[in-house]
């Protein structure tokens, strides 16, 4: 065999190797895509759910200045979710719903004039409260000055007076800041979330991770939102759902997943409940098994959304 024949044979073998590698890569990618289309098992559905805890703050913002008007606790459900259906891309993403504060923003005020009026009303309300606290403070001070016997009742009233003084001083600081805000333009309300996510590992132990702070508009209560863990890593053993592009159909049986507290006597930490998904996002699953943020699957395991105000939101 001459030199040219050997060169052609070597080139032919090299092409076949490259073709084999390309076919192998293509087959691997095809198998991965097909596996991504498979619905989750019951165990995976249980491992997809997590708990969202922390606080949400209603904030008034004017430029770089911020005042926290109200704070509520957050205790709801969530689900680990991938960014892309065709690739494992959770990276610590958790889908849940915006809770919002229950005190002020039900009017969904967004215009500057309406917000300014709301600020004036709120400031005046705080001012009246400060005046009442001042009167009460002076009455307590007079009692303590004029009372000659320092008995048990005197001690208790002194402690109460000290507490009232601290509360009055705190209210005055808030009132002064709100009064200064009344003269500023470009006011807006925002919702700030300070959350942590909790889940059960493979050993049934509860684990937690802090989430990055999240700021959104104040009138988005009940809408789905995504929070990110601080390390942007999905925990080992948790299952991230895939939001397939064709979604779920109406009028089908659905399954919700709801986590229960650690000390609850159940064979699993996540409870599955079945019901009917009705056109328009309604369902007939009891609220106990359909908390805000609970993931919803079809009977065949396809993820279709989360619970929000007793509706299925996608």
Lay out the secondary structure.
Elements: H1 3-37, H2 42-48, E1 49-62, E2 65-80, E3 93-97, H3 112-146, H4 152-181, E4 187-200, E5 206-210, E6 214-217, E7 224-228, E8 252-259, E9 270-278, E10 282-283, E11 295-298, E12 303-308, E13 311-313
Antiparallel strand pairs: 1-2, 1-4, 2-3, 3-7, 4-5, 4-6, 8-9, 8-11, 9-10, 11-12, 12-13
Helix pairs in contact: 3-4
Helicity level: 25-40%
Regions with pLDDT < 50 over 5+ consecutive residues? Answer: 103-110
Q: What's the β-strand tally? A: 13
Which overall shape is indicated by the principal axes computed on the Cα atoms? Answer: elongated
Which structural class fits the helix and strand makeup? alpha+beta
Largest sheet: 7 strands, antiparallel
- The percentage of residues in β strands lies in 25-35%
Radius of gyration: 29 Å
Order of helices and strands: HHEEEHHEEEEEEEEEE
The whole-number mean of residue pLDDT values reads 82
First-to-last CA distance:
68 Å
| Structure annotation, total helices | 4
Task: Please explain how this structure is put together.
There is one protein chain. This protein has 314 residues and is an alpha+beta fold. It has helices spanning 3-37, 42-48, 112-146, 152-181, and strands at residues 49-62, 65-80, 93-97, 187-200, 206-210, 214-217, 224-228, 252-259, 270-278, 282-283, 295-298, 303-308, 311-313. Helix 3 packs antiparallel against helix 4 (152-181). It is elongated and about 120 Å long. It starts with a helix and ends with a strand. Residues 103-110 have low confidence and may be disordered.
């Amino acid at each position: 065999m001459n030199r040219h024949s050997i060169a052609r044979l070597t080139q032919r073998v090299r092409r076949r190797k490259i073709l084999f590698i390309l076919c192998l890569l293509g087959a691997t990618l095809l198998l991965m895509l097909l596996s991504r289309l498979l619905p989750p098992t019951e165990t995976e559905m249980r491992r997809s759910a997590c708990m969202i805890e922390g606080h949400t703050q209603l904030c008034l913002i004017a430029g770089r200045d911020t005042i926290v008007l109200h704070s509520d606790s957050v205790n709801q459900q969530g689900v680990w979710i991938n960014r892309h259906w065709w690739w494992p891309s959770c990276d610590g993403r958790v889908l849940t719903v915006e809770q919002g504060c229950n005190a002020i923003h039900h009017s969904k005020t967004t215009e500057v004039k309406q917000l300014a009026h709301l600020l004036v009303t709120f400031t005046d309300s705080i001012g009246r409260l400060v005046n009442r606290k001042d009167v009460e403070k002076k009455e307590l001070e007079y009692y303590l000055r004029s009372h000659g016997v320092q008995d048990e009742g005197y001690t208790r009233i002194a402690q109460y007076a000290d507490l009232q003084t601290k509360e009055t001083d705190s209210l005055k600081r808030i009132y002064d800041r709100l009064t200064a805000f009344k003269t500023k333009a470009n006011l807006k309300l925002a919702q700030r979330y300070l959350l942590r996510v909790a889940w059960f590992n493979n050993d049934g132990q509860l684990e937690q991770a802090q989430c990055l702070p999240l700021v959104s508009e104040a009138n988005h209560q009940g809408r789905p939102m995504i929070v990110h863990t601080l390390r942007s890593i999905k925990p080992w053993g948790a299952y991230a759902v895939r939001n397939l592009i064709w979604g779920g159909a109406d009028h089908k049986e659905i399954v919700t997943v709801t986590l229960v507290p650690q000390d609850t006597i159940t064979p699993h930490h996540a409870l599955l409940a079945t019901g009917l998904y009705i056109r328009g996002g309604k369902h007939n699953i009891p609220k106990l098994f359909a908390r805000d943020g609970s993931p919803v699957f079809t009977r065949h395991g396809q993820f279709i959304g989360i619970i929000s105000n007793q509706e299925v939101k996608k």
